[in-house]
Amino acid sequence: MLIRILIAASLLLLLWVLLSGHMDILLLGLGLGSCLFVAWLVHRLALTDRNFNTMKLSFNLPRFLPWFFLEVFRSNLNVSWKILHPKLPISPNKSIVSTAHLNDTAKTTYANCITLTPGTYTLNTDDESIEVHSLTTEIAESLQQGEMKKRISALQNWPGTS
Amino acid sequence: MFIVSWILLVLGSAFCLIGTLGLMRLPDFYSRVHAASIIDSLGTILVLLGLLTQTQDLLVIAKLILILLFMMLTGPTAVHALAHTAVLNENDPESESPRKQA
């Protein structure tokens, strides 16, 4: 347990140094103190105890992120076009996407990715589905085809996971 | 590098402007949130990338990257909090929208 606190504290201290840029003893000491305190608080909240799949997730991210940013870019252009179009060709609608076979980390990632992509955002979530609001029916249909969900479930299904 | 930076900054500002225009033009609350997410995503990303190419200072670069990361985390959270509250207060997206052609 102590090791986890120390790891968290050293990561926080790295952030402190990065943000302050000052190297004198006083400020580093204050930083060390507050980092240890925050790490202890976080430990009390039991956030360091849980076993997240973050490491496994991050190994697959280099394959996912380029596709995702391209997708964000494309839907930005799409939604911008809809906004600038004199006739405002939109058809707002709600739809439900199933997330039954995703684990918790993947569900969160999926819901956040949907919200980050313009044209769709998450209204509501429960254990096996996400309720999504889309700006047009075409956007809703392309979401239903599940390209993003396939890629996110590939994120969680790194060999050796499960 | 200077030119690249300015192209990114101008493009980012353009997307912020489009997002703002969308906030004005779109008919109801739920659609307007979509316009706000343009500002959140491409607007901030391009402006911050433009600022990144303006400097050689490693500390400033690190800070800008951190800002980018935090924006990408807090943006969707704020959008979801807004939308979820609206849903909880039973503003039905479909009944509120005057343009209901499928």
In short:
Chain A is mainly alpha-helical and 162 residues long.
**Largest sheet report of chain A:** 3 strands, antiparallel
Largest interface: A-B, 32 and 39 residues
Strand fraction of chain A equals 5-15%
Count of discrete domains of chain A: 2
Task: Tell me the helix content of chain B.
Answer: over 70%
Oligomer: heterodimer
Number of strands of chain A: 3
What percent of the residues of chain A sit in helical stretches (DSSP H or I)? 55-70%
Kindly report the average pLDDT value of chain A. Answer: 82
Total number of helices of chain B: 4
Order of helices and strands of chain B: HHHH
Number of domains of chain B: 1
Arithmetic mean pLDDT of chain B: 84
How do the strands line up in the largest sheet of chain A?
Answer: 1-3-2
Written description of the protein model:
- The complex is a heterodimer of chains A (162) and B (102).
- Chain A is mainly α and 162 residues long.
- Chain A has 2 domains: 2-44; 54-156, no CATH class.
- Helix content of chain A is 62%, strand content 11%.
- Chain A has helices spanning 2-20, 25-44, 54-84, 104-116, 137-144, 147-156, and strands at 93-98, 120-125, 129-134.
- A 3-stranded antiparallel beta sheet of chain A has the order 1-3-2.
- In chain A, strand 2 and strand 3 form a beta hairpin.
- Chain A starts with a helix and ends in a 6-residue tail after the last helix.
- Chain B is mainly alpha-helical and 102 residues long.
- Chain B has one domain (2-90).
- Chain B has 4 helices and no strands.
- In chain B, helix 1 runs antiparallel to helix 2.
- Chain B is elongated, with a radius of gyration of 17 Å.
